């Protein structure tokens, strides 16, 4: 509870039904004026928790408050491993809100692992476009094929076997094993790390604290209902034990939570300062033909945005020289398009670095031939292409003055 946001008097109990608790449910005494600027992260513990966290308390809360999610089996229904796996891959580094429509589209298009394994990778990438972290889509397809080829279309049930499949790491393997097969496994993602770090007031900083957090998390998993417990931990971190304003007053583990008893739960988990990636810059070239087509190419299958569709670009470098950008513009045979630089830049942030692209645009005659490794795509068909979010930004920027076909502005050579 921040000092400025304190609303309760010294005598008020945050758990009393006659009072509405603050976001953290803290029952700290009001500080003396000279202490009003004390640093919360170093607050002194008031008293030790009365008892250790019990899985039964969390499961009782989950039975009353579980989220209704399209991939989650109803109470008493055996979960479908395919749905569990598909949702866990999509939810990596992505919010539930963003995933819901993609999950529905994938399930309607490929209702089981066999149909997904038989799909063309390009189709999978197109359906994935906009969800980000595109290596997941390639691994998703490769994993489906591995499940069919190695396991006869049935997902393996152990963490060890699951981690041998493409795109499945320790967290995803534990989540699938617990939720789909009731294995006693601890699925530790960012939400769960936060819950455990606060529960035990772990002072060690992330990422170095990950092994200790995992060890503590394993100790919490019950012998029964491990799948429900894994999902309860996810729900607790997503809805109650949130990053900035944890609602401690309604938390099922309010009593045993050591960070709450300290009075500074929002300061956990401790984190070391993250190094920011250096800005990279480059240029993108939007070539439009008079018949309403745009020049596109496919990125290499491996690496950043692997296999996705893009307009031609320069390399993205720290030392990009805008004055030399046109030397890397696509060569269009005898056509000599007049590339015009558009005002502004397109900005995008990848996991490890930010990017800025300047945009050049040119108009060509309807008969212009695509250079090797590129193709003309009708603008009307772009929604069906595997365009990553970055390229959608580029096209939107180029559309600032409309992407409708115009008379070509070029010189013949």
Overview of the molecule:
The chain has 413 residues and is an alpha+beta fold. Helix content is 32%, strand content 11%. It has helices at residues 55-65, 81-91, 96-109, 113-118, 121-128, 135-151, 159-162, 170-181, 190-199, 210-220, 226-239, 258-262, 389-398; strands spanning 280-289, 293-298, 309-310, 335-337, 340-341, 346-349, 354-364, 374-378, 410-412. Strands 1, 5, 6 and 7 form a 4-stranded mixed beta sheet that branches. A 3-stranded antiparallel beta sheet has the order 3-2-8, with no helix packed on it. A hairpin with a 4-residue loop joins strand 6 (346-349) and strand 7 (354-364). Helix 9 packs across helix 10 and helix 9 crosses helix 11. The longest helix is centred in the middle third of the chain and has 17 residues, at 135-151. 36% of the residues are buried. The model is unreliable at 1-45 and 402-413 (pLDDT under 50).
What topology does this entry show?
Layout: H1 55-65, H2 81-91, H3 96-109, H4 113-118, H5 121-128, H6 135-151, H7 159-162, H8 170-181, H9 190-199, H10 210-220, H11 226-239, H12 258-262, E1 280-289, E2 293-298, E3 309-310, E4 335-337, E5 340-341, E6 346-349, E7 354-364, E8 374-378, H13 389-398, E9 410-412
Parallel strand pairs: 1-7
Antiparallel strand pairs: 2-3, 2-8, 4-9, 5-7, 6-7
Helix pairs in contact: 1-11, 2-3, 2-8, 8-11, 9-10, 9-11
Quick structural summary:
This protein has 413 residues and is α+β, with helices and mostly antiparallel strands. 32% of the residues lie in helices and 11% in strands.
Order of helices and strands: HHHHHHHHHHHHEEEEEEEEHE
* Main structural class: alpha+beta
- Report the portion of residues in β strands: 5-15%
Query: How large is the radius of gyration?
Result: 27 Å
């Amino acid at each position: 509870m921040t000092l400025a946001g304190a609303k309760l008097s010294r005598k008020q109990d945050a758990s009393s039904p006659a009072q509405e608790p603050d976001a953290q449910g803290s029952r700290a005494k009001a500080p003396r004026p000279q202490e009003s600027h004390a640093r919360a992260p170093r607050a002194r513990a008031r008293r030790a928790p009365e008892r250790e966290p019990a899985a039964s308390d969390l499961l009782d809360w989950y039975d009353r408050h579980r989220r209704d999610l399209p991939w989650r089996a109803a109470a008493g229904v055996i979960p479908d491993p395919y749905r569990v796996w598909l949702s866990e891959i999509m939810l990596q580094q992505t919010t539930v809100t963003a995933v819901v429509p993609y999950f529905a589209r994938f399930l309607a298009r490929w209702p089981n692992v066999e149909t997904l394994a038989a799909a063309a990778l390009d189709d999978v990438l197109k359906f994935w476009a906009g969800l980000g972290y595109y290596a997941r889509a390639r691994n998703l397809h490769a994993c489906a094929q591995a499940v069919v080829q190695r396991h006869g279309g049935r997902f393996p049930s152990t963490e060890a076997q699951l981690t041998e499949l493409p795109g499945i790491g320790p967290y995803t393997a534990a989540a699938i094993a617990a939720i789909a097969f009731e294995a006693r496994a601890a699925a530790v993602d960012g939400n769960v790390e936060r819950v455990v770090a606060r529960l035990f007031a772990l002072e060690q900083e992330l990422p170095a604290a990950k092994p200790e957090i995992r060890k503590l998390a394993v100790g919490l998993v019950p012998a029964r209902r491990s799948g429900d417990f894994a999902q309860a931990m996810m729900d607790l971190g997503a809805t109650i034990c949130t990053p900035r304003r944890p609602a401690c007053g309604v938390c099922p583990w309010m009593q045993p939570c050591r960070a709450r008893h300290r009075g500074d739960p929002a300061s956990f988990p401790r984190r070391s300062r993250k190094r920011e990636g250096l800005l990279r810059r480059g240029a993108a070239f939007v070539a439009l033909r008079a018949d309403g087509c745009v020049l596109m190419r496919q990125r290499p299958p491996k690496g950043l945005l692997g296999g996705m569709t893009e307009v031609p670009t320069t390399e993205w470098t720290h030392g990009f020289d805008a004055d030399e950008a046109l030397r890397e513009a696509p060569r269009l045979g005898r056509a000599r398009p007049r590339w015009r630089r558009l005002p502004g830049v397109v900005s995008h942030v990848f996991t490890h670095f930010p990017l800025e692209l300047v945009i050049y645009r040119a108009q060509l005659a309807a008969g212009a031939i695509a250079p090797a490794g590129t193709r003309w795509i009708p603008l009307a068909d772009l929604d069906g292409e595997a365009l990553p979010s970055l390229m959608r930004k580029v096209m939107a920027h180029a559309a600032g003055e409309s992407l409708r076909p115009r008379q070509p502005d070029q010189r013949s050579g």
